[in-house]
């Protein structure tokens, strides 16, 4: 299992051709209190860079992009009742959706944890 | 909509003005963002926590970006009435009033507070439009009226149910020994005070729906005053994010969002700002149009909305009818920390502006049901004078 990060502050945890997507701890910290998350429906086909989800803080709504191409297999139903999971456990229980990858080679362009950490420190 | 809409550094940041408390905010952990041409704290520990703190304790807001003006000269109140629809001449010394800066068509150029200090009129106007306001006032007022923009003064707001208990601990003294203490002020009273040899102008007012005070202080003393307040257990610094959610819960419109030059006062549900005497006599900017709107009713009206579900509906969402045609627009909206659900303000056709009316909103292609609700969403907690008490 490997975890990759985008410059748009999504993380993707990959196991074979299946993956889980969420936003990083840095992103949740910048957003502040998350009050609503709109996750994609099962079966939705996503192309890298598509609007995949919406995360709303008290102050503003933001898009979450698809980090790679694929098909959504599940949205995180727990976020409907408890959107604050994104703040309390962004890189664990606060995941947004699961997907089946269609082009795993796209992961090669993403950052690993150390590279993302350095990227965030430079912001 | 931005991607993960948080603010990073951009080129505009270079030209931002710095307020007297800039370094103080940074030292207190404030996250600074561009607002009204200044770098300002949007939050410290988090909007939700700060909002709830103000509703239960007391919060200190830096509102030094707002314009503080002194207007003086012969018959200044009567001359100002040529523009504002309020009964400024009847304003007694030590009293303040909410009013509107109007263009010739009755459209709202700004909303403001005007205070009779006893020797001049003191006005607080919105930060983003203050330079335009000053130019407009200068153009409209005769030359014998002086306008002093108090650029060397900071403005702080202490808001919340413990604001009076907190401010009482600072040892603020009336300017004259026989004048009232700061805690003797009622809502919309103002007076001069002294604190450690520093002259303060204090009013019992604010824009959060809570009891509280607004304090005008020379910029060079703002930091020590803010430190003295925040040393008290009941006071924390609060950012602009919570200021916005507090005023939304209080049902208070925000200039540039719920009011603009295309909107007339009655439509904005601000008829209370047009004094009885002025309604009878007219003579303010756009009076003909505004009085006509008062008599015949506006085409559209600002209302409060209770939103179905949990998703906030923001400024820019629209109100649609059963055929999907746009019939109104949301001008402020967000998540109410006190109520734990989304609320909003919108303009709707007047015939729909009835409490309990169900309407449909549309945001990013998604239809969201809502119900027109009376405002404020959260009860106001002003320290009003008992009936019959007037100084």
From TrEMBL, chain A:
What are the protein's UniProt keywords? Lipoyl
Please give the cofactor(s) recorded in the UniProt entry for this protein.
(R)-lipoate
What does the note accompanying the cofactor annotation read? Answer: Binds 1 lipoyl cofactor covalently.
Q: Spell out the SUPFAM superfamilies in the cross-references.
A: Single hybrid motif
Q: Which GO terms describe its cellular component?
A: cytosol; glycine cleavage complex
- Asked whether the keyword Cell membrane is assigned, the reply is no
Lipoyl-binding domain location is: 18-100
Sequence positions bearing N6-lipoyllysine: 59
Q: Which GO terms describe its biological process?
A: glycine decarboxylation via glycine cleavage system; protein lipoylation
Q: Which Pfam families match?
A: GCV_H
Q: Which domain of life is it from?
A: Bacteria
Q: Which residues form a coiled coil?
A: none
Question: Which PANTHER family does this entry report, sorted A to Z?
Answer: GLYCINE CLEAVAGE SYSTEM H PROTEIN, GLYCINE CLEAVAGE SYSTEM H PROTEIN-RELATED
| Oligomeric form and interacting partners | The glycine cleavage system is composed of four proteins: P, T, L and H.
- Name the protein family: Belongs to the GcvH family.
Biological role: The glycine cleavage system catalyzes the degradation of glycine. The H protein shuttles the methylamine group of glycine from the P protein to the T protein.
Name of the protein in its database record: Glycine cleavage system H protein
What is the native source organism of this protein? Answer: Sphingorhabdus lutea
């Amino acid at each position: 299992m490997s975890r990759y990060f985008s410059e748009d502050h999504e993380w993707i945890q990959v196991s074979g051709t299946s993956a889980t997507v969420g936003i990083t701890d840095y992103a949740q910290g910048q957003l502040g209190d998350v009050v609503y998350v709109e996750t994609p429906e099962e079966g939705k086909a996503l192309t890298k860079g598509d609007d995949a989800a919406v995360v709303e803080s008290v102050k503003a709504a933001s898009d979450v992009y698809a980090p790679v191409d694929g098909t959504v297999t599940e949205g995180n139903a727990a976020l409907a009742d408890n959107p604050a999971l994104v703040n309390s456990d962004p890189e664990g229980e606060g995941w947004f959706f699961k997907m089946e990858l269609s082009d795993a080679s796209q992961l090669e362009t993403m950052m690993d944890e150390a590279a993302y950490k350095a990227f965030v420190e430079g912001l | 909509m931005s991607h993960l809409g948080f603010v990073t550094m951009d080129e505009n940041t270079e030209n931002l003005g710095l307020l007297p408390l800039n370094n103080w905010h940074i030292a207190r952990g404030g996250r600074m963002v561009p607002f009204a041409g200044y770098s300002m704290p949007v939050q410290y520990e988090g909007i939700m926590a700060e909002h709830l703190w103000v509703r239960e304790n007391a919060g200190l807001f830096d509102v030094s970006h707002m314009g503080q003006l002194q207007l003086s000269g012969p018959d200044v109140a009567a001359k100002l009435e040529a523009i504002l629809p309020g009964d400024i001449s009847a304003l007694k010394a030590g009293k303040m009033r909410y009013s509107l800066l109007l263009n010739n068509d009755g459209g709202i150029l700004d909303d403001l507070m005007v205070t009779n200090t006893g020797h001049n009129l003191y006005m607080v106007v919105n930060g983003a439009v203050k330079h335009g306001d000053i130019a407009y006032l200068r153009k409209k007022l005769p030359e014998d009226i002086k306008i002093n923009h108090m650029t060397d003064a900071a403005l702080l707001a202490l808001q919340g149910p413990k604001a009076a208990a907190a401010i009482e601990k600072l040892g603020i003294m009336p300017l004259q020994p026989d004048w009232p203490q700061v805690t003797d002020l009622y809502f919309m009273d103002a007076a001069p005070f002294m604190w450690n040899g520093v002259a303060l102008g204090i009013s019992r007012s604010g824009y959060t729906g809570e009891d509280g005070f607004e304090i005008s202080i020379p910029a060079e003393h703002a930091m020590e005053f803010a430190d003295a307040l925040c040393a008290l257990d009941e006071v924390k610094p609060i950012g602009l994010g919570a200021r916005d959610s507090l005023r939304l819960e209080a049902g208070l419109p925000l200039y540039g969002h719920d009011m603009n030059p295309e909107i007339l006062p009655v439509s904005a549900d601000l008829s209370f700002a047009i004094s009885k005497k002025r309604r009878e006599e007219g003579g303010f900017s756009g009076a003909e149009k505004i009085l006509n709107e008062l008599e015949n009713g506006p085409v559209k009206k600002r209302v409060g909305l209770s939103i179905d579900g949990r998703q906030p509906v923001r400024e820019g969402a629209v109100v649609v009818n059963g055929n999907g045609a746009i019939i109104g627009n949301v001008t402020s909206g967000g998540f109410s920390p006190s109520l734990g659900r989304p609320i909003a303000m919108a303009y709707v056709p007047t015939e729909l502006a009835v409490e309990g009316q169900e309407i449909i909103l549309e945001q990013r292609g998604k239809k969201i049901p809502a119900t027109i609700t009376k405002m404020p969403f959260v009860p106001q907690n002003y320290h009003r004078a008992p009936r019959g008490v007037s100084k």
